[in-house]
Design brief:
It is a single chain. The longest helix has 13 residues. The chain has a domain of about 220 residues: Alpha-Beta Barrel (TIM Barrel). Strands 7-8-9-6-5-4-3-2-1-10-11-12 form a twelve-stranded mixed sheet. The mean pLDDT is about 95. Strand 1, helix 1 and strand 2 form a beta-alpha-beta unit. Helix content is about 30%, strand content about 20%. It is built from eleven helices and twelve strands. The protein is α/β, with parallel strands linked by helices. The chain binds S-adenosylmethionine and iron/sulfur cluster (SF4). The site of iron/sulfur cluster (SF4) has 12 residues, from loops.
């Protein structure tokens, strides 16, 4: 039975956070004063994650993305990838990473059966990288990107959160990068979360960005292969890669949303921007049956709203921070 919500949306994509910890400190993701890290015993084990994912797959999920926090700081992550790879019916396993450990892990992730990698990188300047992330690790990240390309994770997706007066002067450099390398650069609109310094004055809308880029480059829209793709993509001057825009703030994609989320501590969320969550960890640890777990998943989906709150309300809603939910 498909995971269908009240608005006819089929959910076939699960984002799984494997840790709430991170080795970077991007201010837009993690509050400056830090968060209360979960103790490792509070996190789902690999076996528990595999069990939940396999139940989701039996309900029609075809794609899983591992995220966090930083997924590659969870020890032995390739082992989890290999476990999930064995699930019949699961077609795609992807990961979103800050790439600090990707040079170390790219080949073992490939061997374990990982299909796709998205790297997050908001600047091409090492000093600015240190300012945004509060860690001086640009060189490791760049090595990670090269390692992923060398392993054949192509095209590699690169997420860039654009913020006015922080990194918006690098837009054209990122576009050039997408021409020269097999990289899809995806500009993401800055989203508000608890204490993440968001304000409308920092938001750069995709329409303004598109105009700016079109003045310098020839853009050709790329037909989306799936209705639920969140990025609007373009080829640039016939270059190697592409660019894309993730317009969560100015043109939401709620009407075609196909995603559910599992937090590292075992809560199910049906929307990134809704505080509602349903924990299954303790239920599982007290011997829940498959049907009981399925019922919790369906309860979460039954509460999914037609669309998330508007820009003016989002930053006020009671929700965990991005790093705790899993982006
Ligand atoms: N640590 C990994 C990484 O950075 O790729 C995975 C977790 S991170 C929370 C996932 C994605 O969320 C990243 O691409 C990050 O840029 C994005 N993100 C975090 N906070 C955001 C915000 N306030 N607005 C837009 N995107 C955000
Ligand atoms: Fe860490 Fe990713 Fe959040 Fe940056 S965006 S603090 S790398 S989880």
């Amino acid at each position: 039975m498909a995971l269908l919500d009240r608005f006819g949306r089929v959910h076939d994509y699960l984002r799984v956070s494997v840790t709430d910890r991170c080795d970077l400190r991007c201010a837009y993701c993690m509050p400056e004063e830090g968060i209360d890290w979960r103790d490792s015993t509070e996190l789902l084990t690999f076996e528990e994650i595999e069990r939940v994912v396999s139940i989701f797959v039996q309900q029609g999920v075809r794609k899983v993305r591992l995220t966090g926090g930083e997924p590659l700081i969870r020890p032995e992550l390739p082992t989890l990838v290999a476990m999930l790879r064995k699930l019949p019916g699961l077609e795609t396993i992807a990961i979103t990473t800050n790439a600090t450990h990707l040079a170390r892990d790219a080949s073992s992730l490939k061997r374990a059966g990982l299909d796709k990698i998205t790297v997050s990188l908001d600047t091409l300047h090492p000093a600015r990288f240190a300012a945004i992330t509060h860690r001086d690790r640009f060189a490791e990240v760049w090595r990670g990107i090269e390692a992923a390309i060398a392993e054949g994770f192509l095209p590699l997706k690169l997420n860039v959160v654009l913020m006015a007066r922080v990194n918006d002067d690098e837009v054209l450099d990122f576009v050039r990068l997408s021409c020269e390398r097999p990289i899809i650069v995806r500009f993401i609109e800055f989203m508000p979360f608890k204490e993440n310094g968001w304000s409308t004055t920092k938001l750069i809308s995709y329409r303004d960005l598109l105009q700016q880029i079109s003045r310098e480059f020839t853009l050709q829209p790329v037909e989306s292969s799936s209705r639920s793709d969140v990025a609007k993509e373009y080829t640039v001057n016939g270059g190697l890669g592409r660019i894309g825009f993730i317009t969560s703030m100015t043109e939401d994609f709620c009407s075609t949303c196909n995603r559910m989320r599992l937090t590292a501590d075992g809560a199910i969320k049906s929307c990134l921007h809704d505080g509602a969550e349903f924990s299954i960890r303790d239920l599982m640890r007290s011997g829940a049956t498959q049907v009981e777990i399925e019922n919790v998943i369906r309860r979460s989906l039954a509460g999914k709203q037609e669309r998330h709150a508007g820009i003016d309300e989002l930053y006020q809603i009671e929700n965990r921070t991005m790093i705790q939910i899993g982006g």
